[in-house]
Amino acid sequence: MVENRGFDILDYFVLVLKWKKFLLITFISVFVLSYLIIYIFIPVEYESSALIVPSGNESSMGGVSGLMKNLKDLPLGIGGLSKSSETDLYITIIYSRSTLEKLIGKFDLLKDYNLISMEKALKKLKKNIKGSLTRESAFEIIVRASSPQKAAEMTNFLLSLLNESVINLNITKSRNNREFLEKRYNDIRARLKDAEDSLQLYQQYSGLLEAKEQAHLMLNTYSKLQGDVIEKQMELSIMEKITAGDSPQLKLMKTQLEEYETELGKMKRNGGDKNVLL
Hints:
The protein is mostly helical.
């Protein structure tokens, strides 16, 4: 009686030895064919990268782009943003349509991509640009292009656009803050003027012994001090946008503002119930 048994591991080993030449030739042929297909049909691309480290940190900046040195003193901490918010801001600027269209026009990428449609070129360019936050809390930009020189030039140009956008955002924010503080300052001055007029009328009809000249002097002093406080607040707000948090100049300005506010508080509390400032 013949016993039927299946293949065991030894049978497979014998089969591989028997066909080893065929398997080796097949493997080499597939490898060479795959390499030729990739070499012929897939264009070669080169990468250029750069790192942005916020100026608030005492860190260095690196990357293939020499332009990054100019970003060292940028007021990257817009409005006290967190690192994640800064990253979102950079990504928004980099992938904005206006930025991508400037890159396409500057480097004639429609010709590089062999495309006519701007929309398709925008989609392809987005895939060739990568922006992300590294483990060291630095923002990394990677740009792929058809040559090393073009990749580096595109990175430099992209950084210059980012530089310009961040500065314009800070200028706009500072201008808005200044206009708001100026409006508040004018409102307070108008209210103080009304208070001065009301106090003079009150003195005339109540027989208050406080001299008109003294009341005028006190109100002028209070008004000037209040105006100085607002002016210092405005200067400090603008300085915080354009300098690092540990700047000696910023610390000095904060100390001055605290002293002004202290003196203003003393004037408000001086005299208790007898205070002539209604």
